[in-house]
Design goal:
Layout: H1 3-10, H2 37-57, H3 61-78, H4 86-118, H5 126-141, H6 144-155, H7 159-183, H8 187-194, H9 200-211, H10 213-234, H11 242-251, H12 255-283
Helix pairs in contact: 3-12, 4-7, 4-10, 4-11, 5-7, 6-7, 7-10, 8-9, 10-12, 11-12
């Protein structure tokens, strides 16, 4: 037996600082949640919000219980898929994907410019970075559906309103994310390029952009998934696409056609999810 083992058996061995040690008796002390003030405040606040919401909505629970069985019947009807006007459903799906892609590309290009201007380490004017980040926060705080409805009021119903409405949120998202990515580029890398006499554009394309490329690709793949989901939903408010097709089918009690459209939307969303996961794994992001 060496000295360390003997000291441990004798109870005189002191572990190194930062090493987790089980207390005597083998019990680990756990904080009592009932004495945790933030937890109590959270529970009370959540209960008050729930009570206020119920009082505000004035739900008719009797009617809800009465009509709940009908929900199962609707689901069963939707599983009886119908290929009625299938070509129109496919065309609407293509429109939704096109809106997702266009808003993604325009948002990506706009976000790259705004992100570079909002990054404190490469912006030409420091106060501009704070102003742009505040604008990004405001735009993202407003739901995408609201932006689409505002565009619909000026441009009318159609796919153009969907692209422009999605562009607001997409550009603000990319601007915020890319600014953070550019700010994480090591200062030594930027200074090394500047020391060669490079201008701001050369610093951006020669240092900031190459160092951030993997993050940009990963966030772009993730945002495409979000754009697709939002484009499918926004069709229900008049932006066209598969969302409008599902709404029209449900309003006409064509549950089989609506169910087939839902399956198509789900299948494409699953494909995007698998693609996004593959890209992240390859880039190790």
């Amino acid at each position: 037996m060496d000295k360390t083992e003997g000291a441990v058996e004798a109870g005189a061995y002191e572990p190194r600082r930062g090493t987790a040690v089980a207390p005597r008796g083998g019990r680990i002390p756990v904080a009592d949640a009932r004495r945790n003030l933030p937890t109590k405040l959270f529970v009370v606040f959540s209960a008050l919000l729930a009570a206020l919401s119920l009082a505000l909505l004035k739900l008719d629970w009797g009617k809800i219980v009465e009509r709940t069985p009908k929900l199962g019947r609707v689901f069963r009807e939707m599983t009886r898929f119908s290929a009625e006007k299938f070509s129109l459903t496919v065309a609407a799906m293509a429109e939704t994907v096109a809106v997702s892609v266009l808003s993604l590309i325009y948002g990506l290009l706009t976000g790259l410019v705004l992100g570079a201007l909002a990054a404190r380490n490469i912006t030409p004017w420091k106060p501009l970075a704070g102003v742009l980040k505040g604008a990004f926060a405001f735009i993202r705080a407003v739901p995408t559906a609201v932006w689409v409805l505002l565009v619909l009021a000026s441009m009318g119903f159609g796919m153009a309103a969907g692209v422009v409405g999605l562009l607001f949120h997409c550009a603000a998202f990319f601007g915020k994310v890319f600014a953070q990515i550019f700010e994480e580029v090591p200062e030594e890398t930027i200074e090394a390029v500047r020391s060669t006499g490079a201008g701001r554009l050369q610093v951006f394309f020669g240092a900031a952009l190459p160092a951030s490329l993997s993050g940009i690709i990963a966030w772009t793949a993730l945002r495409f998934e979000t754009n697709y989901v939002e484009a499918a939903i926004l069709g229900m408010v008049g932006a066209g696409g598969i969302g409008y097709t599902m709404t029209a089918a449900m309003n006409g009690y064509k549950y089989g056609r609506a169910g087939l459209a839902v399956v198509i939307v789900f299948a494409f969303a699953l494909m995007i999810e698998l693609l996004t996961t593959f890209i992240k794994r390859k880039l190790k992001v």
